[in-house]
Design a protein that fits this description.
The protein has 577 residues and is of the alpha+beta class. It has 20 helices and 20 strands. The chain is globular, with a radius of gyration of 22 Å. It binds glycine (GLY). Glycine binds next to β9 and β10.
């Protein structure tokens, strides 16, 4: 198999470049020094496996496994590679969440972006207190302080087996030597270019990104090389920090001090028992983990109502919408950054509380929206976001990682002389309580803007284990559709015994309390014809929408991994011996 594409150098060329490049001036982290060889561990699975967003990141991961790396090494190599080859969502200018299961223990790393020090609660409101349209979505003021580089640094330092330079090598190669642009990437670029036209410098960097072209990013290659040589320090206090701050000066809020003070945080994952499995998923500042657990448990609580109800039938859609209505009511009210707001995690995931919420479900007709949660919402504009990858190594470790620049190509700003696409994550704050963000979801003061605060997210990288062993690794992009999509795929697998590829490809729908009694469906598997008529007859409005779903999942059958990439995206799976 040809491992590295469009490269003059070969696979071993990556490794050689990594070893030849000597670290200078960053003795504290000594990233160029190889870690001492780990004690040989017996393999517990027949192979390692990946499900990732594109073929280049798959090649990178495969190489890392061949060099003796583990799931964390592979994950970090994938993340840096996607920042180059999947620039619409892969990133070093954004942030994300990583759920890990290493040596039989769960971990969660929050490398979500933070609001700049100069951010204020009303920074997106005009004199009349109205939200200024687009201000949190486009341009310099939409950008949160990026977390991805520190996240990858911390994960690899803590759990990786390889030397830091080895995991950076594939990304540097693709940035320096180029990669072949896919049709989907060009399409997304074209859409973004229209959206950013006249607002940002997007086209200066991505004007030449055309299908079939070997696209090179020399500025980004230089940044990645410095990160390889100097570790995360370059990004947060070195030359790259200076370039980002310089780009921002006079336009945006992020300064050198913002970058210097950024830190990714290790948190306790949300944990729950469900049908004999242990679920590990994202805690706040994600809403997704709590939402996923509430969905799974409420459905189990209403098992009698679901008995003999066919998958994706009108009654099934109704019952799921009833459950989702309650989950989104909680999301709007209680969720925000736990470092700033006391999120009642234990209460929201408590079995008795969830059972009480489940008892409010009306099995016949849609509950009145106002009785569940008052407020007005708008529908989500058609905009895409985020990317996910799942990794399992033959030693039984797993990484489930979702990261993002929010909308495709984030704020549309590329930091000058770096090629770094900067996020528009500030839109995930509630600019004004009760006013919907780009995903159409509303928030309360729990998610208001404050300096150094992390905006509420829906990203839900998830791992299920059984008897202490990894059983499923799953996640997807899709904003507020993320955890309802994961929930549906888990149902497909465990409640309807669907084979993994079918479970991932099957119809998905979404309800989120607002707009009232609206069921969103996606063109890939439409709700139409007789099914649509029957759902409408139950009192729902149907609305087509691109969820931008791209589930990447790995299931372990016995001791053999099986992987599935969503047919909706350009994802790739590999089983690596
Ligand atoms: N920006 C999408 C999310 O964090 O859920």
């Amino acid at each position: 198999m040809k491992l590295f594409r469009n490269a003059k150098s070969s696979a071993s060329g990556f490794a050689l470049a990594a070893l030849l490049s000597v670290s200078v001036g960053f003795l504290e982290a000594t990233p160029a020094v190889a870690k001492p060889p780990a004690k040989a561990q017996p393999a517990v699975l027949t192979a390692s496996a990946i499900a990732v967003a594109d073929e280049y990141s798959a090649d990178a991961a495969e190489q890392i496994f061949k060099e003796g790396g583990n799931a964390v090494d592979a994950a970090v190599a994938i993340a840096f590679t996607l920042a180059v080859t999947y620039p619409e969502a892969g990133n070093i200018g954004g942030g994300g969440f990583m759920t890990l299961y290493v040596d039989g223990k769960p971990y969660f790393l929050d490398y979500r972006e933070r609001a700049p020090l100069a951010a204020t609660k009303n920074m997106y409101l005009d004199d009349k207190g109205e939200v200024i349209k687009g201000m949190s979505l486009y341009g310099y003021r939409a950008v949160g302080v990026p977390g991805t580089v520190d996240g990858m640094w911390q994960a690899q330092r803590r759990f990786g087996k390889l030397n830091w330079k080895q995991v950076l090598a594939p990304a540097i190669h693709y940035a320096r030597d180029g990669f072949q642009v896919s049709e989907q990437l060009q399409q997304r670029r074209d859409d973004a270019a229209k959206e950013f036209a006249g607002k940002t410098n997007f086209d200066t960097y991505f004007g030449n990104l055309k299908q079939g072209v070997n696209f090179k990013q020399p500025d980004l290659a230089a940044v990645l090389q410095r990160i390889s040589d100097q570790g995360a320090k370059d990004f947060y206090s070195g030359k790259t920090a200076g370039l980002i701050a310089e780009s921002m000066r006079g336009h945006g809020l992020i300064t050198r001090a913002d970058l210097q003070q950024y830190k990714a945080v290790w948190r306790q994952p949300i944990q729950a028992d469900w049908k004999g499995y242990r679920v590990y998923t994202a805690p706040p500042p994600s809403s997704g983990g709590i939402g996923l657990v509430q969905l799974l448990k409420m459905k189990a609580d209403r098992a009698a109502d679901f008995k003999d109800v066919p998958l994706n039938s009108p009654q099934y859609i109704h019952l799921i919408a009833e459950i989702e209505k309650r989950v989104f009511a909680d999301r709007a009210q209680y969720l925000g950054d736990p470092d700033f707001y006391k999120v009642p995690v234990a209460q929201l995931t408590d079995d008795a509380y969830i059972a009480k919420r489940a008892s409010e479900v009306n099995p016949e007709t849609p509950s009145d929206t106002k009785s569940v949660q008052p407020g007005l919402g708008t529908s989500m504009p058609e905009k895409a976001e985020t990317t996910h990858f799942s990794v399992v190594d033959k030693w039984g470790n797993a990484v489930s990682n979702t990261y993002t620049v929010n909308g495709y190509f984030g704020s549309g700003v590329v930091a000058d002389r770096t090629g770094i696409v900067l996020n528009d994550e500030m839109d995930d704050f509630s600019a004004k309580p009760g006013v919907a963000n780009m995903f159409g979801v509303v928030g309360s003061d729990a998610n208001s803007i404050e300096p150094k605060k992390r905006p509420l997210s829906s990203m839900s990288p998830t791992i299920l284990t059984k008897d202490g062993k990894v059983s499923l690794v799953i996640g997807t992009p899709g904003g507020s559709r993320i955890f309802t999509s994961i929930f549906q795929v888990i149902n497909n697998i465990y409640d309807f015994d669907m084979p993994l590829p079918q479970a991932v490809g099957a119809m998905r729908f979404h309800h989120q309390l607002l707009p009232p009694n609206t069921i969103f469906w996606e063109p890939y598997q439409p709700i139409d014809g007789e099914l649509a008529k029957q759902v409408e007859a139950k009192g729902y409005t149907l609305k087509a929408q691109n969820f931008n779903g791209d589930i990447q999942a790995i299931k372990i059958n016995g001791n053999t991994p099986e992987a599935a990439a969503d047919p909706r995206g350009r994802g790739v799976t590999r089983i690596i011996q």
